[in-house]
Amino acid sequence: MNLRCLFRRGGVLLFLPAALLSSRLNAQRPPSSAQAPDVHALAQRVDQHYNKLHSLKAGFTETYVGLGMHRRESGSLLLLKPGRMRWDYSSPAGKLFLLDGKYAWFYAEGDAQVQRIEAKKLDDLRSPLRFLLGHTQLEKELTDLSLKPAPNGEFTLTGQPKGQEKRIPRLTLTVTKDGAITAMEIEEIDGAITGFIFTGEVPNAAVPPDAFHFSPPAGVPVIDALPPV
Q: Contact at 8 Å (CB) between 66 and 229?
């Protein structure tokens, strides 16, 4: 099981060539609101966007390319502070990844067992999104953070997730100019790429009371094990 994020807009690209025509004109011209933010400013907008939320709902499409495989899955994502996350897969139907704050649960309809692991030991590709479940400080979560323009007026923020140096050399977030994450791409040390596109973000979405409670199906044993990759 795996995860992901991207950006786009042409206003900045049109502005830059004009700005290069005359440094004298540039000195007289007031700053353009279309001008791309610097990496620090955009990282702060991401922080501000998510720190004011208590919950978030979105659709997702997940792709995985690596080890001779190419997989595409989709479903809905629900986040709730502090520390809760639910990925319901509609394709394939019946697949679930749930983080209840104490444990992470992995189950797909028809499996012979439920896999469970303590949240603090979780090393799943969806775990980079967990920084959104607390007090977001993107510049402390990713080292060597860099920014590039992307299509549709969006931007990419790329860095290396702290604490995952041996597994994930690169994580790229695609974000809007206002700091909302629309895509995530994760490169693993073996070259595999997991990507996520997020759509239909609903800030402070209503959360059903039992949304983060998992009860194993009758007769299906729970196995404490490392999560599948």
A: no
